Amino acid sequence: DYVYNNYVLPCKPVCWQEGGNNPPKIDYVNIKDGDKLSEGSFTLKIKVSDDNNLKRLIVKLDGNKIIDQFISGKTYQAEKTIQLTSGQHKLEILVLDDLGAKTTKTVKFEVLSSPKIEEVYPSDGEITPAVIDIYAIVRDSYGIKKVTITLDGREYNAKLLEKYGNTPALTYAKWGLTDVRLGLGKHKMTITAYNVKNAKTS
Questions:
Q1: Any idea what the Cα angle at residue 184 is, between residues 181 and 189, rounded to 5°?
Q2: Which of 17, 62, 97, 188 qualifies as a FRET site for 105, CA 20 to 30 Å off?
Q3: How far apart are the C-alpha atoms of 46 and 103, rounded to whole Å?
Q4: What span, in angstroms and rounded, lies between the C-alpha atoms of 1 and 8?
Q5: What CA–CA distance (Å, rounded) separates 18 from 3?
Q6: Contact at 8 Å (CB) between 86 and 112?
Q7: Phi and psi of 115, rounded to 5°?
Q8: Residue 95 CB burial class (10 angstroms; 0-12, 13-18, ≥19)
Q9: Half-sphere exposure of residue 60, counting CA atoms within 13 Å on the CB side?
Q10: CB 51 within 8 A of CB 79
Q11: What is the pLDDT of residues 186-196, one digit of tens each?
Q12: 120 pLDDT more than 50
């Protein structure tokens, strides 16, 4: 028998048998403290482990629960797709094991406002002449750094065609390529806009 806190136990507790109950581990989170992310859809990934047996994983974003899962085993991986909005955010992770040990982690990060692509020519499915001007009208509160146009797998740096408004920064402008010659058939185009904080939108 073993005496623990004035109680006589019929056998040695598990935590004694394993040399002490080490708390669970948060092995991996794909957001780090101080990260700057782009707004929009993001898949959060978390990996936790324990020497004994995991019991529960709770994750909060800005105080709201986004994961609350009863779990088991010595390792567990969680994924959750969330929508990130611009601004400062706080992620809180709590993991508990069967013996009552727990580990917490707090991650503070910033989501940067992404550029807005308001108009694109040619539009999806549009029939065009053989020679065209390709352009996009882009707006961003931080300022537009660059715009790229990927046409049939080849990337080009778009030129600033026209600036709108009276602000010193390029917050609202038309970017594109002129006199682009297209062969017969279908073509694939992707326009990507980057702001001065390197947030992007395609």
A1: 65
A2: 17
A3: 13
A4: 6
A5: 17
A6: yes
A7: -60, 150
A8: buried
A9: 9
A10: no
A11: 999 999 999 98
A12: yes
Please name every residue paired with 201 in a beta bridge, in sequence order, or none if there are none.
Answer: 193
Q: What pLDDT shows up at residue 20?
A: 54
Q: Which residue has the higher pLDDT, 61 or 3?
A: 61
- In one-letter notation, the amino acid at residue 51 is D
Distance from C-alpha of 140 to C-alpha of 182, rounded to nearest angstrom: 30
Structure tokens at 28: 């991996």
Q: Where does 29-161 have alpha helices with state H?
A: none
Q: Which H or E element spans position 17?
A: helix 14-17
Cβ contacts of residue 10 below 8 Å, gap of 6+?
1
Which residue's structure tokens are 């004694």?
Answer: 16
Provide the residue type at 101 as one letter: A
- Hey, what are 151's tokens? 């046409």
Residue 201 has pLDDT above 50, yes or no: yes
